[in-house]
Specification:
By secondary structure, this protein is of the alpha+beta class. Helix content is about 50%, strand content about 15%. Helix 15 (about 435-455) packs antiparallel against helix 16. The radius of gyration is 35 Å and the shape is flat.
C-alpha cells in the first residue's frame, strides 16, 4: 500500500474558484481509481490561495489484470474492419479465433493476464485530468499555451515516496515545491504529505481549509468574548476569507465613532462586501466601531492593523459625504431625473416604470383595502434613490437608501418601509414584506418587471435566467402565500400589460398572458416541492391551479400533505378512489351520459338516501365558508363520509339492470366525486398501496 500526493503551486487563485478545483480533481481521481479497480482507504483535497493538494492513502501499488476475451467484427465483415481491429489492439491475425454468439459469428482474441503498476497509470492519467479541467475563468501568460486559473509554477507528484515523472505543457513534475510564495527561488523536497503538512504548519501555514476555519472561529470567539461583542453569522463571507489566507491572524480594529451616524447598512456593506471584514455588534444588536479582520500573516509591527483602519475610514468618509448630500435632496423633485435612466431596452425609462407602478399599485390597494394615495406616492418615489451618489457607490443598497432618505424627509413610515422592502424577497429563504403597503409596492414592482420582460420575449431558458425572473415570480408567490391573502393575480397581470400598451410599448409576445400563467404555475410547483409536499399532491394542486387562489391552493396542499398518511387521509383517498373507479368503469362500459342531476325520488334503498344526505351536508358546508375555509376541517368532513360511501358500494348494486336506476346511482356517485373535487383533484392522488 502506498500514498499518492499531488500539489499544484500557482499564483493566487481567487477564493471562488478554489472549492470547485479541489472537489473536481478529487472526484476525477476517485473515478479513475474506481474504473481501474485500484483500492484506497482514505482520500482528501485541500487548498490555499497558492496550493492545490490531493492525497490518497493506502493505495494499491499494482493491479492484476486477468485475461479476457475481446470481441471483434463479424466473420463476414469487410476486410478493412478486421484490419482496423487488429491494428487498434496491437495484435496479429493468428491471435484471433472465431466464436458463435446469439447475434452471429464473431472474431475474438484473448488478452494475457498482466500486472500494471499504479504509478505508471498515474504518470499517464494526471496530465490528462489537468488538461480536461474546465475553469469558470482562466488565463494564459508568457509564451505558454496553457490555460489555467492563474499562472501555474510547479507540480509536485509523489507515489510511494518516489517522484511520478510527467510533463504538463511547459512544466515537468518533481518531488519539490516552492516554500515561499513571495520568493520563488526557495524550494524544498517532500516525499509524503505528512512531512509536507508538518513543515508548513511550523511556518504558520495551514494547508487544510477546515483547520483554517476551525482556527479562525476559535480566535474570533476569544476576542469577541473578551470584548463582549458579537458578529452576525455570515457563512459565505467566512468561506471566502478562509480561501483568501493560509497563515491566518485575527486582528480587532476600529474606526472613528463619528461614522456610526451613517446608516448601519452602509457600514456593514463597506466592511463585509468591499473589505471582507467582520463588523461587530453589542449585546443589543447595535453596530459598534470595532471590526475583525483575518490577515494573512502576523502583524509584528502593527502596520497591518493601522493600514486596514485607514482604508475603512477613507471609505466611510466618502460614504459620509454622499449620505449628507443625498439625504437632503427632495425625492419628489428627483422623480423627473428618472427620465434619463433606462429601465431596459423596449421597456422605457425608470420614469415610465414608476408611472406604471403607480397605477398598478392603485389597483392592488383596492384589493388590500389600504390608502390608494399612499401606495401611489410610494410607487412614484421608490426608484429615486437610483439617482443618488450613495447607490451609485453601493448599488446593493438600492431601496434601502430610498427608505432612509424618505424617513429623513418626513414621509409616512409606511411609505418609507415600503420603499425599503420593495425588492424583498431576494431568495427562497429571504424574509418577505408583511406590512400592507410594503406588500403592495413589492408585488407591483415584480409584476411590472415580469410582464415587461415576458412581453419583449426576454424569458428564462432552461439554463439561463439573466434577469432573475424565476426569483421574481417566486417572490410574488411567497408574498401572497406568506401574507395569507389571495390576490386577483390574473387581473393584475392583464392590467400591467395594458399599462405598457398605454405607453406605446409594443410587445412582440402575442401569447403573453398564457405564458405568464404557465410560468407562475411552474414556479408554484417548485415552491410546493421545496416545502416537501408529496409529488402526487403537487400534481393534484397544479391540476386545479388558479392564479387568483394561490394561497388557498397552498393551504389545501399543505393540509392534505399533513394527513395523507394517517387514518383520515387513508379514508379520504380510499373513499374517493373506490367511488371514482366504479363511476369511470361504468361510464366507459355502458356509454352513459351524465347530466349532473340526481333524483332522490327514485332511490330504492336507505343507503342511497344516506349518501345523498351526507353529500348535501358537505355542499352546505362549502356554501357557508366563503373565503374563511378551515382546510383541516374540510378534510375531516370529507373523511367522515367514508361510512355512507362504503355502505352504499357494499350493499347497493350500481350496475342495476333497470337503466333509470343505474343512471341515477351513477349520477349520485358523480355528485359525490364532484363534491370531493371542490377541495382538490383527488383523481391524481395515489392510494397508499399504489
Amino acid at each position: 500500500m502506498a500514498e499518492f500526493f499531488l500539489e499544484l503551486f500557482s499564483e493566487e487563485i481567487p477564493a471562488g474558484l478554489q472549492k470547485n478545483l479541489r472537489e473536481s480533481l478529487l472526484e476525477g481521481f476517485k473515478k479513475f481509481f474506481s474504473n481501474k479497480s485500484i483500492k484506497f482507504k482514505k482520500s482528501f483535497s485541500l487548498s490555499t490561495p497558492n496550493r492545490l493538494i490531493v492525497v490518497f492513502e493506502s493505495l494499491d501499488k499494482q493491479i492484476n489484470l486477468s485475461s479476457e476475451e475481446i470481441k471483434g467484427p463479424k466473420t463476414n465483415a469487410p476486410e478493412q474492419a478486421l484490419e482496423g481491429f487488429i491494428r487498434s489492439n496491437k495484435i496479429k491475425k493468428e491471435d484471433l479465433f472465431k466464436n458463435k454468439t446469439e447475434k452471429g459469428e464473431f472474431y475474438f482474441y484473448k488478452t494475457k493476464s498482466r500486472l500494471l503498476k499504479t504509478d505508471d497509470l498515474l504518470k499517464e492519467f494526471v496530465p490528462k485530468l489537468l488538461e480536461n479541467y474546465q475553469w469558470k475563468r482562466s488565463m494564459k501568460w508568457g509564451e505558454y499555451d496553457l490555460n489555467w486559473g492563474r499562472p501555474l509554477k510547479s507540480i509536485l507528484s509523489v507515489f510511494d515516496r518516489k517522484t511520478i515523472n510527467f510533463s504538463f505543457h511547459h512544466i515537468s513534475s518533481s518531488n519539490s515545491t516552492y516554500i515561499d510564495k513571495d520568493f520563488e527561488e526557495k524550494k524544498r523536497v517532500f516525499k509524503d504529505f505528512k512531512s509536507y503538512e508538518k513543515y508548513f504548519q511550523k511556518q504558520g501555514i495551514l494547508v487544510d481549509q477546515d483547520k483554517r476555519k476551525g482556527f479562525i472561529i476559535k480566535e474570533f470567539s476569544k476576542l469577541l468574548s473578551k470584548k463582549k461583542l458579537i458578529i452576525e453569522e455570515n457563512p459565505r463571507l467566512l468561506d471566502e476569507v478562509i480561501n483568501l489566507v493560509d497563515n491566518p491572524n485575527i486582528l480587532l480594529c476600529s474606526f472613528d465613532k463619528k461614522f456610526l451616524v451613517i446608516p448601519r447598512e452602509i457600514l456593514i456593506l463597506t466592511m463585509q462586501s468591499h473589505q471582507k471584514y467582520f463588523p461587530t455588534f453589542d449585546n443589543k444588536g447595535a453596530i459598534t466601531n470595532e471590526f475583525l479582520i483575518v490577515a494573512n500573516k502576523k502583524d509584528l509591527k502593527g502596520l497591518i492593523k493601522v493600514g486596514n483602519e485607514r482604508v475603512v475610514e477613507a471609505r466611510l468618509s466618502d460614504a459620509e459625504f454622499f449620505w449628507n448630500k443625498d439625504k437632503t435632496q427632495n425625492l419628489v423633485k428627483k422623480v423627473s431625473q428618472l427620465k434619463s435612466m433606462n429601465f431596459f431596452k423596449g421597456l422605457g425609462t425608470y420614469f415610465d416604470k414608476v408611472q406604471r407602478m403607480r397605477k398598478l399599485g392603485g389597483m392592488i390597494s383596492d384589493e388590500l383595502l389600504i390608502s390608494k394615495e399612499k401606495v401611489e406616492l410610494s410607487a412614484s418615489i421608490c426608484k429615486t434613490d437610483l439617482t443618488s451618489d450613495l447607490v451609485g457607490e453601493f448599488p446593493e443598497l438600492q431601496g434601502i437608501m430610498g427608505g432612509y432618505f424618505s424617513i429623513h424627509q418626513g414621509f409616512d413610515k409606511d411609505i418609507s418601509l415600503a420603499i425599503t422592502e420593495q425588492y424583498l424577497p431576494v431568495g427562497l429563504d429571504s424574509k418577505t414584506p408583511k406590512k400592507p403597503f410594503s406588500v403592495a409596492l413589492s408585488i407591483t414592482d415584480k409584476i411590472d418587471t415580469l410582464v415587461g420582460f415576458f412581453g419583449i420575449d426576454e424569458k428564462p431558458s432552461s439554463s439561463k435566467d439573466p434577469f432573475a425572473l424565476r426569483r421574481t415570480a417566486l417572490g410574488i408567490i411567497r408574498i401572497i402565500i406568506e401574507n395569507k391573502k389571495d390576490l386577483k393575480l390574473k387581473d393584475l397581470l392583464s392590467y400591467s400589460s395594458s399599462l405598457y400598451n398605454d405607453q406605446d410599448h409594443n410587445f412582440i409576445n402575442k401569447n403573453l398572458q398564457n405564458e405568464l400563467e404557465n410560468f407562475l404555475k411552474d414556479r408554484f410547483r417548485y415552491y410546493l416541492k421545496e416545502k416537501q409536499i408529496r409529488f402526487d399532491i403537487i400534481d393534484a394542486s397544479i391540476s386545479s391551479f388558479s392564479l387568483n387562489k394561490l394561497f388557498s391552493s397552498f393551504e389545501k396542499a399543505k393540509s392534505l400533505n399533513k394527513i395523507i398518511n394517517n387514518q383520515e387521509g387513508i379514508d379520504i383517498i380510499s373513499s374517493y378512489k373506490r367511488a371514482s373507479n366504479i363511476l369511470i368503469g361504468e361510464l366507459h362500459n355502458n356509454n352513459i351520459e351524465i347530466t349532473n342531476t340526481t333524483d332522490p325520488g327514485i332511490f330504492k334503498t336507505d343507503f342511497e338516501k344516506s349518501l345523498y344526505k351526507k353529500i348535501n351536508e358537505i355542499k352546505k358546508y362549502y356554501s357557508t365558508i366563503n373565503n374563511d375555509e378551515n382546510y383541516e376541517q374540510s378534510l375531516s368532513i370529507l373523511a367522515g363520509a367514508k361510512k355512507e360511501i362504503f355502505e352504499l358500494l357494499d350493499n347497493v348494486k350500481v350496475n342495476e339492470e333497470n337503466e333509470t336506476l343505474r343512471k341515477n346511482r351513477l349520477e349520485l356517485i358523480n355528485m359525490l366525486c364532484k363534491t370531493f373535487q371542490n377541495f382538490i383533484n383527488f383523481q391524481l392522488l395515489k392510494a397508499n398501496n399504489e
